[in-house]
Design brief:
Rossmann fold; five-stranded parallel beta sheet; 32% strand; alpha/beta; OB fold (Dihydrolipoamide Acetyltransferase, E2P); elongated; single chain; 256 residues; five-stranded antiparallel beta sheet; 2 domains
């Protein structure tokens, strides 16, 4: 059973999070802290009591934007501990995901928190900690979208983006940012996985950080030995190792 600490400076959000944690059979205990400084004091006491002590903490569910010491600051401090608790970030902002996973976070949950999404974060924490629930948790049905769409999460709501609408993909650590004409979405899928999955759909790697849809390339530019492509109003550099393949693919598309 996991022993959890929830940290949020907004009381209603903290109470809602604690309510959901207490309802999960994999959570043995859950306490709250109103800011990162209070949380750090509790974690220090937990570490002093030892892994089996009465105040031990296995996982911290941590808000990011808080006055004073914020969630990322606390996570950085904990990363220097010999046996830190696991971290699950719970935030209303998707912009910090790359930093969060650089800090080895178990998961990144967006507010408003949905019960099913939090349950997945608890499952990941339990698996990493090696915890076994006394009672099997209910299985959450997962409905795979058709191959023409990819699931993205925005503000706690899962939506499906058409693959044909994606103009290019940018690597951001263990994440990938999907760009469309209407905006962008962050997904926890490595760029190499999307490259393999979407190769047959006309996506090609042009750089270690970029995957582009051939159909959305407006121009191929050559300038003093450098190659770039224009996608909408955005110009992306093409690395030397990918330039020849890209030119060949574009030529075949124009002549076929």
């Amino acid at each position: 059973m996991l022993r959890a600490l929830a940290v949020d400076d907004e009381r209603p959000s903290l109470e809602e999070l604690l309510y959901l944690l207490h309802a999960d059979p994999r959570i043995g205990s859950a306490e709250g802290a109103g800011d990162a400084t209070e949380a750090l004091r509790r974690i220090n006491r937990a570490l002093e009591s030892g892994p089996d002590g009465p105040e031990a903490i296995d996982v911290v569910f941590l808000d990011i934007q808080m006055p004073g010491l914020d969630g990322l600051d606390l996570a950085r401090l904990l990363s220097g501990f010999a046996r830190p608790p696991l971290i699950v970030f719970v935030t209303a902002h998707e912009d910090f995901a790359v930093q969060a996973f650089d800090l080895k976070a178990v998961d990144y949950v967006l507010k408003p928190v949905r019960k099913e999404r939090l349950a997945e974060a608890v499952r990941r924490a339990a698996a990493q900690r090696g915890s076994t629930p006394r009672e099997a948790a209910p299985r959450i049905p997962v409905h795979e979208p058709d191959p023409d769409h990819i699931a993205v999460e925005l503000g706690g709501v899962t939506r499906f983006v058409a693959v044909d609408d994606i103009t290019h993909v940018e690597a951001q650590g263990d994440y990938a940012r999907l760009h469309t004409d209407r905006g962008s979405h962050l997904v926890r899928i490595p760029l190499s996985t999307l490259e393999e999955r979407w190769r047959s759909r006309g996506f090609v790697r042009i750089h270690r950080r970029h995957l582009v849809a051939l159909r959305h390339i407006g121009e191929l530019r050559l300038d003093a030995g450098t190659v770039s492509v224009l996608i909408g109003s955005e110009e992306l550099q093409v690395s030397r190792r990918h330039a020849r393949e890209l030119r060949d693919l574009l030529m075949r598309r124009t002549t076929s």
